[in-house]
Write a structure and sequence with these properties.
268 residues, mainly beta, three-stranded antiparallel β-sheet, 2 helices
C-alpha cells in the first residue's frame, strides 16, 4: 500500500508541474537551441536571442564564422539587424542578402527596416502598392506601352516584350505588330495580342499552348483552333533574340538549334 501511495503521489506531482507550465518535456521545444535553429521567443535560444520576423536563434557576431550552425539549422551570416532595445543597427547573425527581409548594403546583409534607399526594392519591396520595383532604379509607377521594361509587372499592361524590352498592349486586347509581339487576326477581322508564355498565368483568359517539349509556347484564345487565325509578328531588330530569319528586319537570324526528335527551334 505504501509503495502504491508513493507512486500515486509522484504521478500527481508530475501532473501538477505540467499544468503549471513546468519543464517536464525534453527535445526541440526546450531552451538552449543553437544558432540557426527555429524559435518563437528569446527563451528558446542558448544565446537568449530569437531573431524577430525570421524566427531563428541568433547571437552577436564579428564575422560569419561566429554564425555557423552546429545543428543543421538555417545558414546565417554576420550582418546588421534592428536592436530590440533601441531600433538602431546591431551586428548579429542574420539570413544572407536577399533571404527574408535582408538586403546587401556594402556587401553586408542588412535588415530592410534599416534601409531607406529605394534601389533595394528587389529585396525589400515597395511601400507604395501603386508602384513596381525596377532593379537598381527603385520604386516606379507602371510604364506605358512603348516604354522600357524588364519584367511584366514593370508595365501597366502586365506585358513586357520577350525580346524588345518595351511594354506591349495587354494580352487579349486589340493590337498591331507595332505594339504586340504576336498580333493574332481572328475570324471576323478582330485582333488579339498574344505573346510567348510559360504557363496560363502569363495569358490572362487565354491558354498557353504550343510545343511543350521545345518550350515554344504562346497565348492562344479558343477562337484560334487549328489554322483559324493568322499572326502578324513584331519585327526583331539587330541584337534582339530571334528564332528564324523571318523574325529579323535584316533577314538573318544567327542562332543555335534546340531539337526534339525531328522538330527543331532556333535560340538566338
Amino acid at each position: 500500500m505504501r509503495r502504491s501511495a508513493l507512486l500515486f503521489t509522484s504521478l500527481a506531482l508530475s501532473l501538477l508541474v505540467a499544468s503549471c507550465g513546468g519543464p517536464v518535456s525534453s527535445g526541440p521545444s526546450d531552451a538552449g537551441r543553437p544558432i540557426g535553429a527555429g524559435c518563437t521567443s528569446d527563451g528558446d535560444c542558448e544565446s537568449g536571442a530569437c531573431l524577430s520576423g525570421t524566427n531563428v536563434c541568433t547571437a552577436p557576431c564579428t564575422a560569419d564564422s561566429d554564425c555557423t550552425s552546429t545543428s543543421g539549422g538555417r545558414a546565417l551570416v554576420c550582418g546588421v539587424t534592428s536592436c530590440a532595445s533601441s531600433g538602431s543597427g546591431c551586428a548579429m547573425c542574420v539570413p544572407p542578402c536577399g533571404s527574408g527581409p535582408y538586403t546587401c548594403v556594402g556587401a553586408v546583409s542588412t535588415a530592410c527596416a534599416l534601409v531607406d534607399d529605394p534601389t533595394h526594392c528587389i529585396d525589400c519591396g515597395c511601400a507604395d502598392a501603386t508602384t513596381h520595383c525596377a532593379r537598381d532604379l527603385g520604386c516606379l509607377p507602371p510604364a506605358a506601352v512603348g516604354e522600357p521594361c524588364a519584367l511584366n509587372n514593370d508595365c501597366a499592361t502586365n506585358n513586357c516584350s520577350t525580346f524588345a524590352g518595351v511594354c506591349r498592349v495587354a494580352v487579349g486586347t486589340a493590337c498591331t505588330a507595332e505594339d504586340c509581339d504576336a498580333c493574332l487576326h481572328l475570324p471576323g477581322g478582330t485582333t488579339h495580342c498574344s505573346r510567348e508564355c510559360r504557363g496560363d498565368s502569363d495569358c490572362r483568359t487565354d491558354r498557353c499552348l504550343g510545343n511543350t517539349t521545345l518550350g515554344v509556347l504562346e497565348c492562344l484564345p479558343t477562337a484560334c483552333t487549328g489554322t483559324a487565325c493568322t499572326v502578324e509578328r513584331a519585327v526583331h531588330e539587330t541584337g534582339q533574340t530571334c528564332r528564324a530569319d523571318a523574325d529579323c528586319r535584316s533577314g538573318a537570324c544567327f542562332a543555335s538549334m534546340r531539337c526534339s526528335g525531328s522538330d527543331c527551334v532556333a535560340d538566338g
